[in-house]
Amino acid sequence: MSKIPVVERIMSQHDRVAIRNRALLDARGVHAINVMASPGAGKTCFILATAERLGNRLRLGVIEGDLASSVDADKVRAVGLPAVQINTGGNCHLDAIQVGQALAQLPLEEMDLLFIENVGNLVCPATFALGEHTRLAISSIPEGDDKPFKYPFIFANVDVLILNKMDLLPYIPFDVEAFYRTVRGLNPDIAIFPVSCVTGEGLDAWVEWLLQRVQRP
């Protein structure tokens, strides 16, 4: 009799739950985006800026993942969006089971788009499927242009990349073209949007791409 390693069994369980999450979202007509980035890259600010640009064109909800606190979920609720906070304790990523439990607390029938803000980390979150339709990574100017060299897996396995905090480019050494070349070498089909949540640069292009991907019934 063959033995299945514990890690393999756990991954298989999470994969099954991720499939169920996706089926539920599909049945409710909700497009889910898994947002992954380092701490401080601007995940929550980006989600809020996107919501502001979208206006009433899409109905949004948010799942917030953090080790502790409800700081980000409180920010989201403060602008009138439904949000569920997941505190992972010591875990460095969200998993499909946690997301499934959060979905049960959201008014999915009143939503078109769900942002799942993963725990701040460039390693673990990219490995675990949650049931999302789109995988999005955020990198920011202050983090440097060498991130794709150091963390190639996440850049190679997302659908869209946001290069955030473009307003800081005049003050920080960052080779944008070299950054793009490295990313496209890992992922030729990736969509890249340079944005600033402070000045609004690039947000219109990102929102137009998003609206083409998410159709409101």
Description:
The chain is of the alpha/beta class. The protein has a single domain (6-213), classed as P-loop containing nucleotide triphosphate hydrolases (Rossmann fold, 3-Layer(aba) Sandwich), CATH 3.40.50. The chain has eight helices and seven strands; from the N terminus they run H-E-H-E-H-E-H-E-E-H-H-E-H-E-H. It has a seven-stranded parallel β-sheet, sandwiched between helices. Helix 3 links the parallel strand 2 (60-66) and strand 3. The radius of gyration is 17 Å and the shape is globular. The mean pLDDT is 95.
Summarize the structure.
The protein is of the alpha/beta class and 217 residues long.
Question: Order of SSEs, N→C?
Answer: HEHEHEHEEHHEHEH
Global Rg: 17 Å
Please give the largest β-sheet.
7 strands, parallel
**How far is the N terminus from the C terminus?**
50 Å
